[in-house]
Amino acid sequence: MYIRAVHAEGSLRASYIPFVLDVDDEESDTEMGRLRGHLARQSPHSKAMIEELSSDLEKHNVLEHDVLIIFTAQHHYVTPQFYTETKPSTGKVVPMWNYAAAQVYGRARIYFDSTSEETSEFLGQQIADLTRHAETSVMGYRYIDILKKNIIGIEIEVVRLEGKFKMSQEMGKGDREGVISGFHGLQNDIGKQIGDIFSLRETFKCRIASN
After folding, report:
1. Which Pfam families is this protein grouped with (predicted)?
2. Would strands 76-78 and 67-72 be described as parallel, antiparallel, or unpaired?
3. Three-state DSSP state, 70
4. Bridge partner residues of 105 (DSSP)
5. Taking the model in full, what pTM does it have?
6. H helices of 19-150, where?
């Protein structure tokens, strides 16, 4: 998660956070939902956010600037040797870096007052939901109460979504097929996963073209 200029000196902060998504209306075409997460209270990111909010109580625990959350899929270097069409005919090819990612923008509310009932309820639900999702079981309440004193909660109202998909889609059919074969030929987990993403994209593209 990236937050702009939350520190007194204006420096950027970034943290890796597991999120839970809340959606009130699954049938809605416009609702984007809310992301819930938590951070260690002693992390530099947490301290910077608490410092900003503590200096202006009128913010009601909502950060002034929007936050950016990035979810990334597999990414990998693409060698020109994978191309079967462009390279033999022109030789004018360059290496690339292919990737897939989603970017979420929103306003962040921070639950950091450990004496607040609102903070306690938010963190209790966050920890229990994340634990059920990850372990399919619920932690003991005593452990949750201890843990809540050492973390802060983050709730982000999603206002914009963007997708980034750079998978050699600008290349010709032969080169795209060569990239798929090349990644599958690496015979490792990353190569297989990226090759499968290419294959799914090609299948999806063919279905759209035929409709």
Report:
1. FMN_bind_2
2. unpaired
3. strand
4. 68, 160
5. 0.69
6. 44-54, 86-89, 117-135, 141-148
Q: Which two tokens stand for residue 137?
A: 């079981």
Spatial contact of 87 and 144, defined as CB atoms under 8 Å apart: no
Tell me which DSSP letter residue 35 carries: E
Which of 17-21, 34-38, 73-77, 202-206 has the weakest average pLDDT?
A: 202-206
Query: Whose CA is closest to 63, among 77, 49, 47?
Result: 49
Q: What single letter denotes the amino acid at residue 8?
A: A
Q: How far apart are CA 17 and CA 13, in angstroms?
A: 13
Higher pLDDT among residues 26 and 145, named by residue: 26
Token couple for 185: 């030929």
User: Would you give the distance in Å from CA 71 to the centre of its chain?
Assistant: 2
Q: Which residue has the higher pLDDT, 143 or 176?
A: 176
From residue 179, how far is each of 117, 124, 193 by CA, in Å? 54, 47, 13
* pLDDT, position 10: 57
Secondary structure element (H or E) that encloses residue 180, with its range: helix 173-185
Cα dist from 24 to 29, 121, 162, whole Å = 12, 18, 21
Query: Given a cut of 50, is residue 130 above it in pLDDT?
Result: yes
Domains and CATH numbers, the chain: 2-210 (2.30.110.10)
CA 153 to chain centroid, in Å, comes to: 17
What number of other Cβ atoms are within 10 A of residue 197's Cβ? Answer: 20
- Provide mean pLDDT across the span 33-55: 92
